[in-house]
Amino acid sequence: MHTQTITKMQEMKLHGMARSFETRRTKPDHQDLTHDEFIALLVDDEYIQRQNNRQRRLLQMAKLKFSSAALENIDYQQNRGILKSKITALQNNHWLEKYQNILISGPTGVGKSYLACAFGQWACRSGFTVYYSRWPRMLGDILVARGEGNYLKYLQKLTKVNLLIIDDFGLNSLADTDKKDLMEIIEDRYMTGSTVIASQLPIKDWHTFIGDPTIADAVCDRLFHVSHKFELKGGSMRKKSEIIDS
User: Fold this and answer.
1) Are 99 and 193 in contact (CB under 8 A)?
2) pLDDT for residue 244 is more than 50
3) pLDDT score recorded for residue 145
4) Number of domains present in the structure of the chain
């Protein structure tokens, strides 16, 4: 009978429950459980597996540069301008639920991309959809989408995710079409989703970098309206890692 029960569970795609039932039904310490208690354990195991599967899917869809980056693993020993209290406060997900942004600036190698990906990984673990892209790559994808007649569809993809991460913003000057694309992205996401932007440019210089006063005002107003800023400092973490490894 138990074999038939497991088969039925698998047919209903209750794979976590099926494995749990097979394992738990013969455990000596489970023999004195009531029916309610035993069923509750099976449901918990199915729920946990589904949550884990969803997290894996979200992480795969996010395409994070550092998929293993985690807020819990941030190095606070280095004086980089990252306050643990500030990171801890953002782990309540209020900023994601209220469509607030995170802006990260700092020199090369100081850990901007890692921090951005750590926020992305945290969001995935909390059940939010995430998409990561370097700004130069995103511009290339936009160009391809425009050529294939899928421009609006691509913008919709960027709008739908709960958290959009734009890395390496400001590496190259912006063409007029780039400025308009940036405005479309930020405008569409305003008060509908959160955005993380990492850049070597100091945040105060983003308005000047964008150039066009009208577009710069619109973009910066929406980004800065409710944002959490991390202005990192210090030398390259990569160099320190190389010294340790050698």
Assistant:
1) yes
2) no
3) 95
4) 2
Strand bridging mode 227-231 / 101-105: parallel
**End of a domain among 10, 32, 60?**
60
Domain housing 208: 63-245
Strands (E), the chain: 101-105, 130-134, 163-169, 194-199, 227-231
Angular region, 81: left φ>0, alpha ψ -120 to 50, beta rest = left
d(CA 223, CA 214): 14
Buried b (16+ CB within 10 A) or exposed e, 166-179: bbbbbeeebeeebb
Do both 47 and 113 map to the same domain? no
The answer to whether residues 48 and 127 belong to one domain is: no
**Axis-axis angle for helices 151-160, 176-189 (nearest 10):** 40
Indicate whether 208 and 99 sit together in one domain.
Answer: yes
Q: How many CA atoms lie within 13 A of 153 on its CB side?
A: 8
Closest CA to 163 of 216, 223, 100, 106: 100
CA distances from 7 to 1, 16, 43 (A): 10, 12, 17
> pTM score, two decimals?
0.79
Q: Three-state SS for 244?
A: helix
Domain co-membership, 134 together with 42: no
